[in-house]
Predict the structure.
Amino acid sequence: MKSFFSPESVAVIGASDRPLKGGHVILKNLRSLGYAGKVYPVNPRLGEVQGWRAYPSLREVPGPVETAVIIVPREKVPEAMGQAAEKGVRSVIVATAGFSDAGDERGLALHAEVARIAQAAPFRMMGPNSIGTIDTHSGFITGITSHEKLPPGHVAMFGQSGMFASGFANHIRSHGRFALSKVACLGNKLDVDELDMIDYLAEDEETKVVGMYFEGLSDGRGFLDAARKLASKKPVVVLKSGRTEAGRRAAAGHTGTLAGADAIYSGAFRQAGLIRADGLEDFFDRLEVFDRCPVPKGNRLAVVSITGVGCVLTADAVSDSNLRFAELSKETLGDMRSVVPDWAPIRNPVDMWAAIERHGVEPAYQVLCQAALQDQGVDALMVIFTLIEECAFDAATVLAQLRIAHPDKPIVAAFLGGEAKLEQQWRKDFSHAGLPAYASVRRAVVALDALAGRIDQIGDNQRLCCGLS
Amino acid sequence: MKSFFSPESVAVIGASDRPLKGGHVILKNLRSLGYAGKVYPVNPRLGEVQGWRAYPSLREVPGPVETAVIIVPREKVPEAMGQAAEKGVRSVIVATAGFSDAGDERGLALHAEVARIAQAAPFRMMGPNSIGTIDTHSGFITGITSHEKLPPGHVAMFGQSGMFASGFANHIRSHGRFALSKVACLGNKLDVDELDMIDYLAEDEETKVVGMYFEGLSDGRGFLDAARKLASKKPVVVLKSGRTEAGRRAAAGHTGTLAGADAIYSGAFRQAGLIRADGLEDFFDRLEVFDRCPVPKGNRLAVVSITGVGCVLTADAVSDSNLRFAELSKETLGDMRSVVPDWAPIRNPVDMWAAIERHGVEPAYQVLCQAALQDQGVDALMVIFTLIEECAFDAATVLAQLRIAHPDKPIVAAFLGGEAKLEQQWRKDFSHAGLPAYASVRRAVVALDALAGRIDQIGDNQRLCCGLS
């Protein structure tokens, strides 16, 4: 499996000099991500592509080739695979689509042919219809849409869809949500499938959090056994959506069947210690919190909010979760009183507006958050901001400072209304500080709830988050 | 009630020349929003504030004053109210906090005093603890945090919290979500409450969609009667969160009670034809779709998606909704086939990747969306985009063009992954085009589901959206 992520050499069969072609973009991406291995473009018509010498076929490539990416018209895929077998490559990624995914007669025939070749070949194969893998540490990438440099990180994600190495990876980087370690798009899963990925990522030292997406499983029991082992080591967030068939059934109104099957999946995931996400936003939300926060020692939450609405919305979200509000100690209440005027009540969730009016925004947040974190009865802190000019300050730095003294307590921000421009800036600041920031209090609570859900599953040595370990 | 939104004159009792003070910001905002009425700052120490002549007290103001905003320390509020009564103002907004909201002894005593004065006075009162109202059409505003010019629109929102005239109004404008007509922060609701607002907005011609937030109601039956009447005329989205007491009970683990009471609210809302939002993001999501889309004639949805993941995630979301997938006619399938290669299946939701590869991004979207909209069996269209450079085009213009021929069919966009910068630009473009765009397929489906939920409640003359009427 290592050959799919950090090979010493790669041949791109179907390399192109036309900017929009996948066989061109892959090479551009290898440059952008700084892949240091040997690169061999293969194209019978070209002498050089993007500074790399090109070869008419794989046979002509001098020296060994560890990995081959095949991106030629579907009719030519079997031949290219034959060359790869002959050359003795260790792994093949077939990017070309139009096999079992197309479903036409010719596609199914080619599928059978490709399957026969793969079975006899000495290499492992990803795909067909896989736009491949990304490894942010080695700089290896076979995605066919353009990428800027991706910062190396500790979150691996995979699924059968090409979106993981394209739109989703773009989203995660450009929104500063978390940093990826490895990405794999499994495509039609003719050979490499979820089980291979699970076993590989369980041992991968660069990966500390795993996110996986799938629509259907061929080997449910095998999957659950492997996933249970992985989940005992690393948090695993699963986005399982209905298979296309199920989607069509749903469309026809047979929701009962679908919901039933879906509930079975949920139960199995829970038993295996997998964390099930509710849609794509939630999938990223949960991966972010696991990447950036330690697992807390308990489920007792303190909340500091600029507004009463934030407190009430949080209370609602908490009541739907397994979190509960921490009971603040007398000492904590005393510390908080130093900024809260006498007439204003102090209770958790803390409505801090009166403290802001009296002492200014930054001192109020600083004192109240510090007091909450120092409380032995508080396991996690959620801080609610409204992003208007009057209330703007360098909040990410203040919270990052407080985290130093409390590395075992997750700190999560929620943005409740305000200016889009400030939100962009704050999101960037929080991302740099390695603090999760959510666009709603509900999403922040759901993420913290998932985090606290790992309490019983792990030992203290696994508690610290990626960012701090 | 009109005096709270478009008075001919306003006195600001507690006007200030210090930039951070509410009594300063209100005046600044009146300038920013272009309020054309008479403005009388009241402050015994100042001769002029921001170009308006100031008066030592309300008595000295020449001519009639329709509305007074009181923003002085709480001890001085009763006296200011007395002046307002003497002057014969028609409405008073008390921005000062620290009454029943504080809960201290002095606060409760002042509350009683203010209540006594209000009852005897000839004016209606909003507050105390109300940071007031915004009317984007008249330019009248009493919010105490800074605002740029707010574009006049057709969505009214109110709640007891000050957030509506501050962070939430900022959020809605700066994210280009929809345009507001009127905003009211009711504060402690000593006099003006939800019922007054409901009755007023039912008749308000500038308001075509209503969003309301509350935590508790003193007159549940009266509320439901009034709300039912309002909902028969205009879509009403309600964000009801747990009362603070309920929040605290929730914190202590008494979730059963809370959930029970909450289910009763949900049932009552449904009977009254109110649309209940699930959290703040959803509240804005639904207001946006009602502002920008016509209510469809049925619940049959067509989906055009750049990726199969989008299709499957949509199928899941649709199966949780009352929408269903439209069955595409033979004619539609034929039209779509003109851009989809023969080997690729065409079904709804439409995975368009093969069409993009063959014909380019813009032609593929144009042809497929047009074909879907022309189908008699399609009531609404959802279009899924991934915001990467390779797939970028002027989608807002293409969809806005298609809408011209199909003004009775809602068109909603969902962004599935991609670059943050492109997302900002696209969001702006869609906002200018008056098309709703959501950050996830699930949110887009939930919004469309709410829209289709109005089908049975309205006549054809109420079907068209604000943007087109």
Summary: The first helix of chain A runs from residue 22 to 32. Chain A touches chain B through 80 residues (CB under 8 Å).
